[in-house]
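Archive entry: two folds, one per protein. Generate the first.
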Amino acid sequence: GAVDGRDEGPVIANAFFNFYRPLVFPGDLVVKLYVADPGRTSIDTFVTIERSDEPGSPYAAGGATLVWVSASEG
């Protein structure tokens, strides 16, 4: 299916992010997004950020819980 934004769509219910060390410009980043098994109306995500020249050494990590909401039903 597709999200057309008319009556329903995802809303961020909770988000967090932790920075372990500073990212210095310039540099190429690797951002990895992991998505958990979806629930009935929500889904959890997790993300890591690394420099491409330092694989496996995260500079930051976080996540969010997305909830599917109907605008007409609240």
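Generate the second and append.
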Amino acid sequence: MNHIDRLIVFYFSGTGNSRRIALWLSELALENNIPCCSYDIATTDISTVQPIDNSATIVLISPVHGFNFPEITLNFIRNLPKGKNRIVLMNTRAGIKLSKFIIPGLTGIAFMLAAAILKSKGYTIAGQIPFDMPSNWISIHPALRSRHIEFILTKNHDKVITHFERLNAGENDFASNKDIVQDILILPVALAYYFIGRYFFAKSYYASDQCIHCDLCIKECPVKAIEKVEGRPYWTFRCENCMRCMNNCPTNAIETTHGLWIIILLLTPVVCSLLYYGILPTSLHHGLAHFILFNFIFLALITLLYRIQQIALKNKICSKIISWMSLTHYKFWGRYKCK
């Protein structure tokens, strides 16, 4: 007997991991004769979705960015109308294969914050389930090998089946509880990413001279964060770092500014020290003032130097040098897209 009368799945996906989980759930619902609708958060206006009957089970799936749900997902949750449905929260984290095991990622505050918002709207949280899908964060590490990706996908497909069966049997499923200690410990990092880190990574991307000006990255950006400046793509602070643009580019022209990272990380403490000890009065020499000044300079340098880099990319020699300083420029680094 099915305990899920109807399944409604909302998902946000950059390179396809969350979309893949949504697809597997839809297939399982079909096999069990359960009506199912699936919606992409990036293209769905919640006001246009037909009123959701309270008997329907809602599943919300999103990747974790900086140990929290990305802003697009949080905004969607905030805009959900009040309801009394059972909601199952799922996330996709960065999974890495090691021998016969998958090294799990961390959820951080993603489930805690989302659950708090949904409970305030009257919903019942029936599950919190993380999935360690193949890591797509190519800015940080090379793409996983094909056999590693297939191994991780197979393991997660089996995991989706297991959790679906539990939910359909009427059980609550809080698989995330086993990670609660490390998720709480990672709270400061999650907050730092939300207020500072995501803006740093938003300025990580640029289009090299391999760009064919197809504008696919601009057209497919789920949050419309990429604009045309100086004749090439330009990433604004709206970027969610979902990695769709970099991993979908047909010529691998989108690269990470590793050279600029080094310059910013070297310059920030120097400029901060000069201003802190040279300009600020001694009465303001305390930890909070230093912290605020450091982060202000950090963001200011990112904004300024990224703009200068955009101009420099117009010069072929400068463009080559910038690419040579990016690990993502080299073929061995690769790209990732969940098929």
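Annotation attached to the second fold: The chain has a mean pLDDT of 93. The first strand starts at residue 7 and ends at 11.
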